[in-house]
Amino acid sequence: MSEHTHASDVPAVSIKKMSKSFGDIEVLRDIDLVVNKGEVVSVLGSSGSGKSTMLRCINWLEEPDRGTIHIAGQRIGVNEHAGRKMTGKELATVRAKTGMVFQGFNLWPHLSVIQNVMEAPIYVKGMPKEQARAIAIELLEKVGLADKHNAFPFTLSGGQKQRVAIARALAMSPEVILFDEPTSALDPERVGEVLTVMKNLSAEGYTMIVVTHEMEFARAVSDQVVFLEKGLIIEKAPPAQFFTNPKTERVRKFLEISA
Amino acid sequence: MNGQAWLLLFEGAWTTLWISATAIAIGVVLGLAIALVRMAKVPFVDQLLVLYISLARATPLVTFVLFLFLSAPTFGINMNRNTAAIVAMTLNTAAFNAEIWRAAFLSFSREQKEAALACGMTSGVFFRRIMLPQMITTSLPGLVNEMSFLIKGSPAIAVIGIVDLTRVTNRIAAVTYDPLPPILAAALLYMLIISALLKLQAMAEKKANRLAM
Ligand SMILES: Nc1ncnc2c1ncn2[C@@H]1O[C@H](COP(=O)(O)OP(=O)(O)O)[C@@H](O)[C@H]1O
Ligand SMILES: [Mg+2]
């Protein structure tokens, strides 16, 4: 019970001293990040700096070597009561509190649009089909795809696929949604429709961590901007400060190039 | 051909059909199970399965049926003809099916699995709801191909005395002294069975198109 009454004080995501290596290469080092409920955090950095890996450690798609991650107060990956790694089932329960939107959409091609959205509520949460359908209809409306319920993914444009993927993530009412370059695979004229949906979500109070190269989006929507460089967070600031008065030469350079 | 001859022919067709169908049904599921176990790469078990698959694929069905039927008693196993035929055909087709299923496993995209795990699915739910349905669709053309090979190879079971659709034509000819009509009729029945399978295959291929994103 107490967990619920104090829920609003607990950060949506809390990362402490997280490190990750692939072989000999340290891809992330001592990452500390707190994301409060309702916040949007943009993660910037050049290619290969560890942005995807950081995001994928948060929902344990990659297992960090050191450090702790809490999702809405619950430790992910480690069962602290039992003092051991989580089983697949335990892990799934924590992951269900997060949503992820991938660069390549990763829709399930054998399912229609609405089935893609209903799948996890039904088969993860055990929600009755009719309830899941009602939620999916609402969410598809929200992302502007009310007319595509029965379409199959292969008939959609990239922008439409990504909006289905967002609806799919929202369907689980996650504590946080992780976006990994959600617009990088899109045709330029399709980027706007996805960013608009994401802006609306932030206005509605969704908690989001967004890896992106869209500077305008980061500036307009973020509460914090994080800059990763070779696996280190070298800058973390509100956008006003980050974009107008960066502390490091590296970020100044990055912003110049991106402008 | 008189009514009696047609009756014999249909009996032969029925024998071919039910023995093949039983072997196919078990062989498809057994093949999937073998592919699943092979994906786990358990040492020794994996080598054993590889050995079985290469042996089963290299041995002609007729040799395999005969060997199984004749050797079973020396292992203290009492098998009637039909059981021997079903076991031999099942072990033969399962080996081919295991390779078809395995290819489907290996080509399955990691991205879809990550999307499933990310929204809280367990590996079991992911397999049942996301992976298996797509594997069935992508494997079906290959599986159906193998089914028609098996049916076309099924006259092999006559070697242990089963009167199947091909063997029965001999019997009819022995009475009528006119071998051509029963053979033609049998060919027609094989074609009917195979074309039903091809229909299934065409349906699967149509459905598979949507998986290519
Ligand atoms: N599964 C992996 N195995 C080995 N190296 C990896 C793996 N995933 C990422 N890397 C490496 O880790 C580094 C960071 O990758 P990534 O997190 O994808 O960076 P970003 O998303 O910022 O472009 C890169 O050098 C990349 O090659
Ligand atoms: Mg990346």
From TrEMBL, chain A:
Its domain of life reads: Bacteria
Q: Which residues cross the membrane?
A: none
Is the keyword Iron-sulfur in the record?
A: no
* Pfam families listed in its UniProt record: ABC_tran
Q: Which GO terms describe its molecular function?
A: ABC-type amino acid transporter activity; ATP binding; ATP hydrolysis activity
Instruction: Report the InterPro entries cross-referenced here.
Output: AAA+_ATPase, ABC_ATPase_HisP-typ, ABC_transporter-like_ATP-bd, ABC_transporter-like_CS, MetN_ABC_transporter-like, P-loop_NTPase
The record gives the membrane topology as:
Peripheral membrane protein
Kindly give the Gene3D superfamilies that the UniProt entry links to this protein. Answer: P-loop containing nucleotide triphosphate hydrolases
- Give the UniProt entry's GO cellular component terms: plasma membrane
**What protein name applies here?**
Glutamate ABC transporter ATP-binding protein
What organism does this protein naturally occur in? Pseudomonas alkylphenolica
From TrEMBL, chain B:
**What broad class describes the main subcellular location of this protein?**
membrane
Q: Which UniProt keywords are given for this protein, alphabetically ordered?
A: Amino-acid transport, Cell membrane, Membrane, Transmembrane, Transmembrane helix, Transport
> Known InterPro entries for this protein?
AA_ABC_transptr_permease_3TM (IPR010065), ArtM/GltK/GlnP/TcyL/YhdX-like (IPR043429), MetI-like (IPR000515), MetI-like_sf (IPR035906)
Indicate whether Transmembrane helix appears among the record's keywords.
yes
User: Transmembrane segments in this chain: where?
Assistant: 12-37, 49-70, 183-200
Residues annotated as signal peptide: none
Could you tell me which residue ranges the ABC transmembrane type-1 domain spans? 13-201
Q: Name one GO molecular function term.
A: L-cystine transmembrane transporter activity
Q: Which GO terms describe its cellular component?
A: ATP-binding cassette (ABC) transporter complex
Which superkingdom, per the lineage?
Bacteria
State the compartments where it is located: Cell inner membrane; Cell membrane
PROSITE patterns for this protein: ABC_TM1
Q: Give the membrane topology, semicolon-separated if more than one.
A: Multi-pass membrane protein
Q: Which CDD domains match?
A: TM_PBP2 (cd06261)
Q: Which NCBIfam families does the entry link to?
A: HEQRo_perm_3TM
The text of the family note is:
Belongs to the binding-protein-dependent transport system permease family. HisMQ subfamily.
- PANTHER family named among the record's database cross-references: L-CYSTINE TRANSPORT SYSTEM PERMEASE PROTEIN TCYL (PTHR30614:SF0), MEMBRANE COMPONENT OF AMINO ACID ABC TRANSPORTER (PTHR30614)
* Protein name in the entry: ABC transporter permease
